[in-house]
Amino acid sequence: MRLDDRDIAILKVLSTEGRITKTALAARVGLSPTPAWERLRKLQAAGLIESYRAEIALKKIAPHVTVFMAAELADHTGPSFRAFEAALQRYDEVVACWALGGGYDYLLQIVTRDIDAYQRLVDAMLDARIGLARYFTYVVTKPVKGGGAPPFDILLGR
């Protein structure tokens, strides 16, 4: 699908304001509601919009800690990577995971009640023998930036 400036504008708005009304979206991108809605449906049908979700103010719900774990696997084979990735699906505390090139094998984002709960999770992963050889823990002390729109203009060379 070839994207024009209006499509990019729609994606920018939706990436930070997923609950915006159709009328407000249309006004923000300079279209009337019907053409804006048709473009939005095409973007969705093309698979460019993967999901809509809320960002939760977790600190208002319960005490918690966010930890990033850099993980190295013991074995670097396709089956080992697939087994590790499949095993991670069982751990609800692992809220995101990225495979990396050049150094560590994975970066995991983990949310637990406290550091003790995080360490119990790591111990359980090691005991489960899911392939984790070494790990490095980075505790988040405060969020600084997040939830922004992707840099469309930079990605598209504009």
Entry summary:
The chain has 158 residues and is α+β, with helices and mostly antiparallel strands.
The helix count comes to 6
Q: Determine the mean pLDDT.
A: 94
Task: Give the count of structural domains.
Answer: 2
- Uncertain stretches of 5 or more adjacent residues: none
Q: What's the N-to-C terminus distance?
A: 18 Å
Could you state the order of secondary-structure elements as H and E? Answer: HHHEHEEHEH
Helix content: 25-40%
The main β sheet shows up as: 4 strands, antiparallel
Main sheet: strand order: 2-3-1-4
What does this protein structure show overall?
The chain is of the alpha+beta class and 158 residues long. The protein has 2 domains: 5-54, Arc Repressor Mutant, subunit A, CATH 1.10.10.10; 58-139, Lrp/AsnC effector binding domain/regulation of amino acid metabolism (RAM) domain (Alpha-Beta Plaits, 2-Layer Sandwich). The chain has 6 helices and 4 strands. It has a 4-stranded antiparallel beta sheet. Strand 2 (94-99) and strand 3 (106-112) form a beta hairpin. Helix 1 (5-16) packs across helix 2 and helix 2 (22-29) packs across helix 3 (33-45). The protein starts with a helix and ends with a helix. The relative contact order is 0.16.
Which descriptors would you attach to this protein?
158 residues; alpha+beta; Arc Repressor Mutant, subunit A; Alpha-Beta Plaits; 2 domains; 4-stranded antiparallel β-sheet; 6 helices; 19% strand
